[in-house]
Each structure stands twice: as structure tokens, then as C-alpha cells.
């Protein structure tokens, strides 16, 4: 679905969601699992991509160190079933296998049995009060070799491949969608050169979460990870575009101007000021201008300088990450992260001693339940804003030659 809605008169027009998407409009989604799942909340890229393309509610219940059978929680902490019911959960995205893989090859059979039991326990429940929960099983990522700090990297990676295969087999046998993150992250790491996407072989960096979130979001919602692709022939004044609509192409001497209607959201820019590896080009919004006269050109959008490159670079395609639309996408991601923080303060209060411990009867302990309710209210209010349809915008792009 396209969450950016054109305003015609006083009517907002919507585009129906893709029927074959795993996630559907109106879904209440819960993420459960290990550190990978937990940190999706802190980075916000995946949820931003999903929210830009589908009308969803998402709560992250990930917990560092969780496995299918080990869920250490403070005394009297709400059960997972209670929270899933409170959130009226339709879809559970489960991220397991990384911790379990430390058991090696001999632990694969137990992992399959535990995953089968996990799926069965949730499929029997109607957390939304109407229909059985829909599950999505997500594999662990590949193991990244950091040299001396990651001994036995090859053996660890082999285990993760085996647990990924086991998860796929188990999910497929019961008709549950499966998302393989191992294979694309293995390819990503193999092409990285000196660039690293994890801090220690298994925990992703911000750039790693940006890249993996595109993979995951694209599997959950059709088109959620599709970048803008704008191509213009400066001589013929012809164009093609993905994600936007081009119109009013005009050439004056060496200058080129055109209107861009943003029919889909701009992709959140990667968390780096430097160059990202070339294999990420397909995940980034790009403008290509062919048949320009030789020289250097600056792109402006609504009068604001965005990027400068020569005619050869424009013909090869220039990444556009700092347009007004991209700044809006980045601001939207910050709002997603803030919503997640408010929910975290409600669901997983940082100081449990005030809830179940010796300070429970202190003034601060007595005040905490009311504060938790208020944090939940804040999360709900912020999500309502995130879920509001946004009006399509048309901006004026201009390529100006430095030779004039």
C-alpha cells in the first residue's frame, strides 16, 4: 500500500495493499525474539519502511538473550500472552536461532522441536479476539569474520546456516511464512571488503540494521523497500520513474528542470556520511540524467542545493539522500523511535525494584503504575500520528550547469 495519499478536492485517495504481502493494512504486529529483534526498536528503520507503506501498529517485545526456551524476566513481569492480548496482536514476527546455534550441530533437532512447539502454541491463540495469530519466522543473520576477535568464525557460520535451514524446514512444514536473513547477509558480508556490518560477528552496527531492515521490510510488505529510481534523457526529454511521477521536463541551454510528485515515501538515508558499499546502490534513491553536455551540474530541489556531480557521474546515477523528502523520512524515523521508547518505559520499566522489590511501597514505587499508564498513552498517541495518511507532495527539481 502507498501511505502517501494525493489530495484531490477534499478527498484522500488510497491505494489498496498488495494481496500477497505478509503484513496487511490494519495489522497489529508484535516482534519477539533475541537481541537482533530488540535492537530493531532502537534503530527504527524497519518499522519506518513498513509504516510508510502500510497502516500498522507495531510493538517490539524483543529481549536481549532470549531463546525459544529461555525467557528470563523479573518477578511478576507480565506474561508474553498477556501483552500480546493487550495489544490485540494479529501478527507475530519471531526472531530466533542466533543464541540456539551456540549448541552446534547436536542442537539442531532440539531447535526444530522447540520451534514447532512455539508455532503451535501461538497459532492456537486469538490475541485479537477474532482470528488465530499469524506467525512469521525470521532466521538469524550470517556470522561476520572480524579476524582474531571472532575465533572459529567458519564453524559458527556453518552452524547458523544449519539453524536457518532447520527454521525454514519447520516453518514450511506447517505453512508459516519464513524469511531468510542468513543468505542475503552472507552475501552482503562477503562483498563488504574492509567494511563491517557487525560489532562482534553477530550484533549489527547502525549501517547493518539499515541494510537488514530493507531486506526484512521488503519481505513483509510488497514494495516497502523499493527505492526511487528517476531516469531522464536530457536530449530527448523522455523519462522513466519508480516511486515518483515525473512531469514538466524543460531544457533551457544546459539547464534542466522537472517536477517530481512523490507518490511513495523517500527511503530513510543510511546512517553514514561516507560512501556505502556499491552493492547497496539498489537500496538507495537515485537520479540518472543521460546525454548531458560535458560539465558539472548542481541539483536543487525547491531552490535548495542537494548534490553536485559531472555529466559522467549523472549518467551513471547519483544517490539522492538529502532532499526535503529524505529529511522528512529521517524525522519520521525519529518519531518511530520515540514512540518505541514510550512503549518500552510502559512495558519494561528500567528499575524493577520499584515494581516488585523493596521499594514497591516507597512514594516512587507507588507512583510508578500511574506513570507506566501515561507512557502507554503517549505511545498510543504518537502512533496515531504516525498512522495518519500523508498528502502527496510535488517539488521542483532543477539541474543547473556551472558553465552558465
UniProtKB/TrEMBL annotation:
Q: Which InterPro entries match?
A: Iah1-like, SGNH_hydro, SGNH_hydro_sf
Q: Which SUPFAM superfamilies match?
A: SGNH hydrolase
First and last residue of the signal peptide: none
Q: Which domain of life is it from?
A: Bacteria
Q: Which residues form the SGNH hydrolase-type esterase domain?
A: 34-210
Gene Ontology molecular functions:
hydrolase activity, acting on ester bonds
Q: What is this protein called?
A: SGNH hydrolase-type esterase domain-containing protein
Q: Which organism is it from?
A: Oceaniferula spumae
